[in-house]
Amino acid sequence: MGGDNAPSEIIRGAVLAANESKTIRIILVGKKDIVEDELRSLSFPEGSIEIKDAPDVIETAEAPVLAIRKKKESSMVVALNMVKHGEADAFVSAGSSGAILVGGQVIIGKARGVKRAPLAPLIPTAKGACLLIDCGANVDARAEHLAQFARMGSIYMENAVGVRNPKVAIVNIGAEKEKGNALVKEAYPLLETLAGINFIGNIEARDIPSGLADVVVCEAFVGNVILKLYEGVGATLLGELKNAFMSGARSKLGAMMAKPALKDTLKKFDASSYGGAPLLGLKSLVVKAHGSSTAKEIKNSILQCETFARQDINSKILEAFSEEDMVSMDKVSSDNVLSENEG
Amino acid sequence: MGGDNAPSEIIRGAVLAANESKTIRIILVGKKDIVEDELRSLSFPEGSIEIKDAPDVIETAEAPVLAIRKKKESSMVVALNMVKHGEADAFVSAGSSGAILVGGQVIIGKARGVKRAPLAPLIPTAKGACLLIDCGANVDARAEHLAQFARMGSIYMENAVGVRNPKVAIVNIGAEKEKGNALVKEAYPLLETLAGINFIGNIEARDIPSGLADVVVCEAFVGNVILKLYEGVGATLLGELKNAFMSGARSKLGAMMAKPALKDTLKKFDASSYGGAPLLGLKSLVVKAHGSSTAKEIKNSILQCETFARQDINSKILEAFSEEDMVSMDKVSSDNVLSENEG
To answer: Which of residues 235-274 of A touch B (CB under 8 A)?
Structure first.
């Protein structure tokens, strides 16, 4: 029931996924009568989609912690509890980010050894996609959190996306090792000595779109700024170019001629083809799809869960976090649950 | 002598400025014989350009504090000292950012009441330009610094750029007042009650390119990320579009037809037309031009100093900072000089 285009696009996305995968089983959690109505006109393999009734809805404007605590019958809380109790393997939602982040950590819970669960979307670059980790789950992170993000991100890129020995970099304001704010200066040496990652050093924001790194590590406030500015600059620039193309007969004709070639480029930079952002480091998989997701992005978000499960990424994260090299990070006391206003 | 294209583009930029302004007087500080050689083939109004010899050069890789302290005969130190002693009104450089920021604060010094001197470039938006403040002068800022940035930025946009009652916003990860990290949550109420600014609340990074605010306040690390990502996304996207246009005969022809219309759009997003970034809040004006500046950007950076002086912006900042509403901020102890590794 969450997201700008819910429930219609969510349901259509689920139907697309069911038709494409053949093996996946999808449980649509939401207001039963509405979901049933929408499903009626759509076709999908028998038994691939079922409905679980959840009469309540968490709105984007609600305070996440309060909403998760009070709305026990919301689609989000019901679905997260199903995952918690093993009735489902993964949770996908285009609803309130805050509620997903809080709900994932409170209801499903973090995996053993994981200090913080980072939200890690894939963003398009000239060379494919890179994982931006963390992007909004926890502001004011500490250096040891960033080191964990680097490790989790590496495992994800290697296993879910198939990038061998992914290049890991930390976002900084200069390429030199000594640059940065207090957090980055503290995190750099941790990353340098961390086993199991291919650390290539600092990355300046200007080098992210060209695809210099496969895993881009940063604190959530910075990650959120990067993610949203990426969208904003792209949208504004493309909007202005479109206006330019439409400004006269000559440019319109030119645009028509160049269209097939342009389409491929724009497709490359279309974030929706990557599905949603996983909230890594939980006991089960939680995927946050973009609030404005269309059926296509929902489909990709759902199919992404199959890869995640098939590659058994959670076990790989658990394994990595029980290795000796990560033990030193375990000294830090466990974080409190997110405060009301975070995310 | 600083910048990727020094000294040639710097000298050409000075000559362009001298020819355009007619009233400005420019002192080129650098290796005398080299500068003389370059100037010989160029024409400019008599007496508009003179040369001051400075045999040393500060390299980008040098540690800023050390370089400023040791290289007394570098073009940067000599020029900053000329400004300090009233032999010049403003300093423009495309050299090492770190050295400019340190040199500006150490040699010229901060204006009375100013806690930190922010670097504030203009960035292109769909509606014109907005001032991004702070962008690299001081990492790990405090809330009261951000409030001062908001005030200085407002004065600059109103007087130097001519935007009446500029809209001031603070970069945050959500539009709601309660969102953010510790710094932003502390700064928000300060900005809300600050006299003399038109505070419109939080701005999410995605809304910066559309031109929602005229003055975008943020801590320097975040500002630096925004500035560089802006460049990076734009450059990558335009590069990919260009490749698409060039990919076949049909798209090439289309591009040719659309070119005049596209040119205007690209011009709008061309940061070089805005000149350099002022380092605000010093006793005199310091302008940091982009390291890759061409003659055109240098020209604009120099001419921008004339506006700054004509509008007497420094006096306006001084005046604002002696008003009662800013006095409360004065309680905070003075900052130390930037550490070696900052900027």
So the answer is: 235-241, 243-245, 247-248, 250-251, 253-262, 264-265, 268-269
The answer to whether the beta carbons of residues B140 and B224 sit under 8 Å apart is no
Closest to B235 (Cα-Cα) out of B224, B223, B243, B246: B243
Q: Phi and psi (nearest 5°) for B70?
A: -95, -40
B167-to-B154, B177, B200, B202, B206 alpha-carbon distances in Å = 8, 17, 6, 11, 17
Cβ separation B232–A265 shorter than 8 A: no
DSSP string, A195-256: TTSEEEEEE-GGGTTTT--SEEE--HHHHHHHHHHHHHHHHHHHHHHHHHHTTSHHHHHHHH
Which residue, among B257, B268, B338, B339, would best test binding to A if mutated, counting the most A CBs under 10 Å from its CB?
Answer: B257
User: Is residue B2 less than 8 Å (CB to CB) from chain A?
Assistant: no
Cβ-based contacts of A249 with chain B (< 8 Å): none
- Complex ipTM value: 0.86
Average pLDDT along chain B, 343 residues, taken 10 residues at a time: 91 97 94 95 95 90 87 95 96 92 94 92 91 86 95 94 95 87 94 95 95 96 94 86 86 86 77 82 93 92 90 86 55 37 38
Place of tokens 């060039």: B246
